[in-house]
Queue: 2 jobs
Job 1
Amino acid sequence: MRSTSAPNTSAARPESFQLKGGLFPMTLLELKTVDLSVLAAELRARVTESPAFFQHTPVVLGFEQLKEDPDALNLIQLRDLCQQLGLIPTAIKGGSSEQEQQAYALGLAALPKGKAKGATTVETAPPPTRERRTSATQPEAATPTTGTTQVIDTPIRSGQQIYVPGDLIILSSVSAGAEILADGNIHVYGALRGRALAGLQGDETARVFCQSQEAELIAIAGHYLVDEDLRSQHWKAATQAYCVGGKLIIAPLS
Amino acid sequence: MGKTTTSSSISSGLALRGHKTAVIDFDIGLRNLDLIMNVERRVVYDFVNVINGESTLKQALIKDKRTENLFILPASQTRDKDALTVEGVERVLKELAELGFEYIICDSPAGIEHGAFMALYFADEAVVVANPEVSSVRDSDRILGILQSKSRKAELGERVIEHLLITRYNPERAAKGEMLGVKDVEEILATKLLGVIPECETVLKASNQGTPVIYDAESKAGKAYGDAVDRLLGKEVEHRFLDPEHRGLFSRLFRRGV
Ligand SMILES: Nc1ncnc2c1ncn2[C@@H]1O[C@H](COP(=O)(O)OP(=O)(O)OP(=O)(O)O)[C@@H](O)[C@H]1O
Ligand SMILES: [Mg+2]
């Protein structure tokens, strides 16, 4: 904190906070039924399948694909069900105006019907700059945000999914059937046998490094390689993957 | 494959070494453990009866006839898997601990469904049984993931101690590349090896007779289970039966020739 700042901090430049636009990935739980017992059973089965995905994952509850009367849905029970399963409901999408009022009462936001803004932004590839996360929607002058770095020192097992809104460093192996996702770079100091997706929000300068390339899929900013393309390129060698002109290159690390 | 065989032999081995041990069958609806332990005709009450309060734990526990320290809690044949509740299982495990049981072995059903989840949820240590084939190793990998993310220990921010037990291992076939080798499985699962149980016809014979194979001191599988129990108890024991047997000079020379 600068001690020289004017005592009457103007409302235009508050020191206690900064408002920034941000794009955060969010899972949409698109409901197909208002029958919560059916939903509960199928969601539970999903939890046993990929438990890691359900750990404190924020979700938007989508009502647009409901064929039944959406007002038949018990929003309180739906919220409780999500919470029991480790999801964090944050908003509803495409509800009736009564539901929106109910959502507000429950501390949930209400998003309008239609395509989410975030989804379109991810599809149009942003310029490959480090600051892209803060550039598009940021009202104030862009100061590059250092994305969080997460270090994990245990193996990522089949069925697990890890997402980090920054760089991801794994000090062990990533199993076949596991998926690791990062907005930034991915480092695997072990064998990469599963799926690795870096630059998830479109950063083409992101890279994937691994000690032994045995991956099922490697993707950077949506450009990906699978199967034969990976097997024929430095298989089981220490490699890095990076993007040149929209093409993914696998090169040995040496 | 080999979980129930392993549960019966490890629980017997622990009891034989003087530890008061209980073994619980979580495979509701199938009931295999009591057959392998030869107590199926003595089952009156089962695990689900205890959970539902239809019998006491003491009424349901069956004392093993071969060793002092071993008790079996059989599964129900008639109930639905959902009869196992987290609260019910926790209560039974607590009560067993209060009765002075040092080891409680939970025999998990196959898959990653409710029964398997119940069997692993309260685990302090887990013996993950894998066969040396890709699909089995993948399943074990998933179970390890669930252990470290969904168990009680994981919820508390702690870790379940993992042990890898490779079973139905055939060194000849592994050497020919028809099966994964021990090193491959160990490397893929990145978990400490507790033991390697060879594929052995004595296992089927033992389960037909209702005697856990660990009692068969002549058989390789019996010896390998004995070693695994010793390792579980903290002893350093060298692994054996990992390599193909030498078939005399001639066959070795012959093989080298090709
Ligand atoms: N080391 C071994 N050598 C030969 N056969 C074995 C060995 N271990 C287990 N088997 C055989 O494999 C079969 C399955 O074993 P077991 O019942 O222990 O598996 P399980 O994992 O408990 O199966 P389930 O998932 O159905 O409960 C049995 O016929 C058993 O005799
Ligand atoms: Mg079994």
Job 2
Amino acid sequence: MHSATNMPRFDTEHVIPFVDSLVLSANKRADRLLQLLVEIQTQYSFVPDQAILRLAEQLAIPSSEIRGIIEFYSFLHLVEQGDFQIHFSDSVIDRMSGSKVLIQQLCDRLGVSPGEPRADGRVTVSTVSCIGMADQAPAALVNGYPLTKLDSKRIKAMAQLIESSTPVDEWPADFFLVSNNIRRRDLLLAAPFQEGSALSHLFKTGTDGILDKLSRSGLRGRGGAGFKTAAKWQMCRDIDADERYVICNADEGEPGSFKDRFLLETCADDVIEGITLCGLITGANKGIIYLRVEYRYLKQHLEERLARRRDKALLGEGILDQDGADFDIEIRLGAGAYICGEESALIESLEGKRGIPRNRPPYPVTSGYMGKPSVVNNVATFFVAAWVATKGGNWFASKGTAESIGTKLFSISGDCRYPGIYEFPFGLTISKVLDECGASETQAVQVTGPAGNLVLSDSLERKLCYEDLPAGGSFMIFNKSRDLLGIVKTFSDFFAHESCGFCTPCRVGTSLISDLVTRVHSGHATQQELDQIQIIAEVMNTSSRCGLGRTASRPIMQALQQAPELFTHRGETG
Amino acid sequence: MSFILDGKNIPFKEGDTIMDAALNADTYIPHLCHDPEFVPHGSCRVCLVSCNGRYVSACTQPAVDGSEVESNTEAVNSIRRELVAMLFAEGVHICPACEKSGSCKLQAVAYYVGLLTPRYEHFNPPGRLDASHPDMIIDFNRCILCELCVRASRDMDGKRVFSISGRGSEASLVINSESGKLGDSLFDVSDRAADICPVGALLPKHKGYEVPIGQRRYDITAIDGAAAREPVKKSGKSDD
Amino acid sequence: MTEKLKVATTSLAGCFGCHMSLLDIDTRIMDLVQLVEFDRSPLTDIKTVGKCDIGIIEGGAANTENIEVLQMFRDNCKILVSLGACALNGGVPAMRNQFDLNACLDESFVNGAGVVNPGVPDDPELPSLLDKVQPLHEVVKIDYYIPGCPPSAEVIYDFLTRILEGKPVDIPYAQIRYD
Ligand SMILES: Cc1cc2nc3c(=O)[nH]c(=O)nc-3n(C[C@H](O)[C@H](O)[C@H](O)COP(=O)(O)O)c2cc1C
Ligand code: SF4
Ligand code: SF4
Ligand code: SF4
Ligand code: FES
């Protein structure tokens, strides 16, 4: 584990050689810029000016553009953050578990203001959108390592460890315990995956055989859009190109979602085998796992898995001793931006740039990473694909509904007794899910994160499936004691914080909505302002360039439509 | 191949966007971040049109044979009006005190869509000017982030003087020079980037009032080229 | 129309240019006077607003007094009209919004070129300045907006006659200008 005191304090003499060695290891490729910046940030807790100028010179990129990239990503900084960088997870679930008080306590103990490095430059306490630990909230990262189930006692201990300059690897191990919290197993989680089984099937039945299984399994992307996976792989395979890429989207930025983190930690082999399978089917030689920086602590574990698989001829040249079956995987880190989960923004980010979504068409399957055909799939999609290749499409189709075949992993958090990972067949009602996870007095559920759907207690018989309520990763439960408008406000703030800022409706609209919702929440909004929210929402839905802007007004609009009484009541008291 | 734009037949060739085809047919679709000389950008969104009932940006959407495109309708213009109002609220646009007034595309599109009513609470960003260059001045609060100067400097002048920094509402134009000032950059007044800005953000010095207010481009001809602005009559009722 | 409509006007943080433009409608003001009666207005020198049908305001809100007057207009006028660039967007006075208020005061009264007797005026009679100059619609509900700096006599006249005749207000393209 990284040690805090080993972190060289920023020192002019070391910067240039360090940057040079990084540049060299990246073969002077400008598209590696973001990776280099993440390394420099990790080393110095910021990106020093000398490093920027050196990178600019070595990679022939204007320094203003490098600064522009640093200013885009939440984890990159232009000022020194110090030996201890604490990032509190700031999702609605963390807040419900009391994170605000804990942040204040830590700040008070350390004598810092949130987001600002302490005067002695040793510690910074800040917040980030959601670190994927909603089942063990409140959570935070210290120098990239997750701290779970925080409470006042632990905050006090942390403050002492920081003040005594105790390196993070000497902190008590139980602070860093990340539980799997597997609560329900079905087809996919019932038994461990047989390493190499999917690949053997591939060599037995051929690519068409596997694509046929995937079609039968009805597998649709688990990252949100629900695109048919078999069709995507086939499109990529059938396009004439000299190079192709497979990209595993491990950006999991959806607040309340942690299924991808769980899979990477617990079922890494299944996922990697799925990626490899896709590479061999489409004819790509290279796979990339785009790992959100919040999950940086998993990088070493994944690297070890990759190395082991290379040793076993499950990865690299001549997979399973088949001639020409060459495919390898590299891990690249994100740098803190929800928008980089959007596939074209992710590709921009992989190319070392600000994560601005691209104009579409063309779609990544025709022109993706480096302009080459690229399959982008969610972690869970690759995971299911590996299983289906092994067990067959009919096996998977034994569960679920007509349009929503098989089972799905849910990240359940919030007001319930047993938060964690649940594998359910598609088509379950919300009330059944609530029963299973021990939720009571439920006021509302947010299905698929802030961009998904708000379901109030009068609609709990709705079903989780594409035919009714499309379900992504996150399932957040709010009981009757929760302030629904406060939750909506958290979501609106999230979108304003995460808009990439490229297009007018989303850049301006998310800020306007966040201000107006704040006013609604404090009881000061006028009818005119409520009308204005609806107009802005309409403009954002129709004219935004990507999915973020097109869905960012959903929380407030759904609250207005489904719970109008919340607003009239506010009006009277305000 | 052709499509119908507001009832008019617009021919197009393979690879054309809706905007390309419309411009070739001398038919106006509002746009701020588009210029046919540069790769399409798609950031301002005022080129929004409805294509077979789906809203798309005309400057980036490939034209489709036989499609029905609606542009100059109240449904579409009402969205554009809000988009323009958002740009006004976000920056600082005090037209009476702006040298670009009358030849500014933002203002002209606002006239075109009939924006009379200010809507949103102003963001009131702090003032940021760069007057370091002998021939040009930048008022960052008028910048609409169309990146035309970015593209012109990069793709035509080969200089990469401009770029965008930051994320979300913090996104802003930055200059590539050691000091971050235009005066220290490679920028030259003869660059293509020097006369590309659609608004009054990147302005030439010493020329502000060469053409008097009231006699400028969009004072005389509306941005769609068709409706000429009538000189303000001194007396008599205008027709209802 | 038996009873004349009552109209009040005022200038807040404006330059009276819009009022000058109103006067520019020349002899047609005589036609108007047939239809309206002016309440509080720089034209009548009445200082308080009575119950009115139409309130017309030029200028944005720059100080506490502006806010009071604006509230008073809103309370007393059935229809409130924002007239001119400053009322709509804050206009030239709002250029100070890009700076810190104290920095502006220092520049004007303390450090600026040619200042004699430096010192920020602090007479209690003076209304205090707002942190930012606000367009009217950010303070009260506004029913109609007439852009222009100043709006031409033509626009103002057309607008008023339309309102008086109970017709929908529709400013034609040729009359919209922000400068
Ligand atoms: C704003 C935004 C954020 C997204 N975030 C993620 C994400 O974190 N993880 C993910 O797998 N897909 C995300 N997506 C969806 C991806 O664009 C893409 O559809 C997906 O990775 C495709 O994989 P799939 O077919 O396996 O679902 C996001 C989309 C949008 C518009
Ligand atoms: S909708 Fe939002 S996130 Fe998407 S491109 Fe526009 S500004 Fe960026
Ligand atoms: S840039 Fe255009 S819209 Fe902005 S103040 Fe100048 S003239 Fe007005
Ligand atoms: S300065 Fe002008 S050309 Fe450049 S991005 Fe801003 S508005 Fe566009
Ligand atoms: S002109 Fe198409 S988005 Fe700007």
